[in-house]
């Protein structure tokens, strides 16, 4: 009983103290039916909602891109048109969704332990037709220099503002490799990485993991699956070159080895994957 009285007395003092708390008027935000003190006490355990930047191509022209991204269904935070406009001497990106809102651009997705990246990402759609299948094979459509210049400026700003790490700047095909191929092998990942936008392996580390093997030498499927999973891709650890594994390897090659995107599990692919793991996951 004595212990209960002590606890009750302590709680009473605490409640009494709370009841008498009067924050400074300048600290309080009026929200209609109540007010919130938004500055006096701040929790340490927090980070930005935005952790990923996802690049896409639209696969259609400017007019259809705008219709699809604004009329319902799919959406993205930004659209880079085929020939970006200019205002005051600076290129203009079209913002379709505010940064603090959730756009519907990633769909069913996964990256490095996190599912459904719509919740935690910004999406940039780029007007580009993607590819055309012809008698001679698949022809990928190039990006325009003005588009890349704008993407570099836009991405650099978003990365700085939200503290997005290089390994979390990804393509749609990285986070949904079984169903997506954008932004494709002609997107200049290496050029952008050299300017601080996105991840890229160190050449010396790639050579270390090649260990004297020819780049096209057959490599261990199991080891490639393990390295890709550790870097961030969703890939089943089957140890065999099944169709899903080939699609994931192709997505990886489009990003980091676009000269050869056959999906073959070769030594260079393995070395690049291991170099990325060493650089960004160690």
Question: Summary?
Answer:
This protein is of the alpha/beta class. It folds into two domains: 52-194, Lysozyme-like (3-Layer(aba) Sandwich); 203-280, PGBD-like superfamily/PGBD (Muramoyl-pentapeptide Carboxypeptidase, domain 1), CATH 1.10.101.10. 36% of the residues lie in helices and 15% in strands.
**Main pleated sheet:** 5 strands, mixed
Can you tell me the number of structural domains? 2
CATH architecture grouping of the largest domain = 3-Layer(aba) Sandwich
CATH superfamily of the largest domain: Peptidoglycan recognition protein-like
Describe this structure as you would to a colleague.
The chain has 282 residues and is of the alpha/beta class. The protein folds into 2 domains: 143 residues, 3-Layer(aba) Sandwich (Lysozyme-like), CATH 3.40.80; 78 residues, PGBD-like superfamily/PGBD (Muramoyl-pentapeptide Carboxypeptidase, domain 1), CATH 1.10.101.10. The chain is 36% helix and 15% strand. The longest helix has 18 residues.
Kindly list the characteristics that best describe this protein.
2 domains, 5-stranded mixed β-sheet, disordered N terminus, Muramoyl-pentapeptide Carboxypeptidase, domain 1, 282 residues, Lysozyme-like, alpha/beta, two-stranded antiparallel ribbon
Topology:
Layout: H1 2-19, E1 28-30, E2 35-37, E3 52-57, H2 62-70, E4 78-80, E5 86-87, E6 90-91, E7 94-95, E8 110-111, E9 114-115, E10 121-126, E11 131-134, E12 137-140, H3 145-162, E13 169-171, H4 172-175, H5 189-194, H6 203-210, H7 221-231, H8 243-256, H9 267-280
Helix pairs in contact: 6-9, 7-9
